[in-house]
Each structure stands twice: as structure tokens, then as C-alpha cells.
Amino acid sequence: MPNPTPTKGNLMALKRSLTLARLGYDLMDRKRNILIREIMGLLDRAAALQGRIDSTFSDAYAALRSANITLGQHMDLADSVTLDASVGIRFRSVMGVEIPIVSAGEETEAIVPYGFTLSNSQLDEAREGFIRVKHLTRELAEVETSIYRLAVAIKKTQKRANALQNIIIPDFTKGVKFITDALEEKEREEFSRLKVIKARKG
């Protein structure tokens, strides 16, 4: 930044800008810390969910294998299960970052889509397992999307905070010092000049 003209008006304007820049940095720093705390909690939750999905998938596939062994492969049973594409998405705001809340739509899981004569308990276990996987996958999608959005926001906030801390605040500080020094020098010169005039008159 080029040195500003050393006037009292410029000094006051620069001091105001410096105060605002420092306040902006404090707010950015606070925002970054809140977002980091939020993302840390979500990372733990994502890891736990991934583990639960893996184990639930394994159990559901094991139950499905048992059902196939005992019942044979019944495509008509598979076709009777309705396709569920109902997903509701709302948002909550964390420091201006829109975080999704994914919810299941209309629940149709209570209705068993096949008759009991052509099925057994292993098939019921497989169905229950895959329903649990569906819910866990929705939850994981919500958490992973939130992590991604928070990570992008943290990166932006960090950039802005760095710009304020390393460029803008030092520039304003330098400008304030330059004007202050110039005005003080001017005052000293004025004082010396008045002294000389007074001495000549006396």
C-alpha cells in the first residue's frame, strides 16, 4: 500500500479501518474455531457410521445368503419390495454455512411386501438389515456432505483471516505509524519555527 497523505483526517480514517480489520480478524478466528469444533464432532460420527454400515451390510448379506439357501432365489419376492426414493432435506445454519438434515420420506417399511408362506425368518432378517443400512446411509450422506461444506467454509475463513492478519492489518498499522510520525515531525518543525520567530522578536 502506498504511503497515505499525512493529514489528521487520513489518520482518523486509517485508525477506524485498522480497528475494523482487527475486529474482522477476531470474528474470522472465532468462526474458524467454531467450524473446526463442528467438523471434528462430525468426523468421529462419520467413522462410527461407516463401521455400523459395514457390519450391518455384512449381517444383512449373510441373512440373505441363508434365505437363498433355504428358499432358493425368488425373483418375485425381490420384485415385491417397493422402491423407496423418498428423501427429505432441510438445512440448518452453522456460522452461515448451510448444513443438510436428511430425513426419510413416507415410511412404508412397516408393511411386509411378501406373504409368509414363501418366506422365512432369514429373509425377514435380511429385509430388516437392508432397511437399517438404508437409514444409516442417509445419515452418512448427511454427515459427509456437512463435513465437505464445513471444510470448504473453513478454508475460505482461513484465507480471509490470513489476509487480514498478514496483509491488511500490517498495512494499516504501517500507514498509521507513517502519518503519526509525519504529523509529529511537522509539529516539531512548527514548534522550532515558532521558537525562532519568538527569539527574533525578543
Topology:
Elements lengths: L7 H64 L3 H6 L6 E8 L2 E8 L16 H81 L1
Antiparallel strand pairs: 1-2
Give a written overview of the molecule.
It is a single chain. The chain is mainly α and 202 residues long. The chain has one domain: Helix Hairpins. The chain is built from three helices and two strands, in the order ααββα. It has helices at residues 8-71, 75-80, 121-201, and strands spanning 87-94, 97-104. A two-stranded antiparallel ribbon has the order 1-2. Helix 1 runs antiparallel to helix 3. The longest helix is centred in the last third of the chain and has 81 residues, at 121-201. The two termini are 47 Å apart.
Proportion of residues in extended strands: 5-15%
Instruction: Look at the helices and sheets and give the structural class.
Output: mainly alpha
Q: Count of DSSP helices?
A: 3
Rounded average pLDDT: 85
The description of the largest β-sheet is: 2 strands, antiparallel
The level of helicity is over 70%
Rg over C-alpha atoms, rounded to the nearest angstrom? 34 Å
Please indicate the count of domains. Answer: 1
Number of extended strands: 2
For the largest sheet, list the strands in their spatial order.
1-2
Uncertain spans, ≥5 residues at pLDDT below 50?
none
Overall, the morphology is rod-shaped
**CATH class assignment:** Mainly Alpha
Order of helices and strands: HHEEH
Q: Examine the coordinates and then state which fold CATH places here, giving the name of the CATH topology.
A: Helix Hairpins
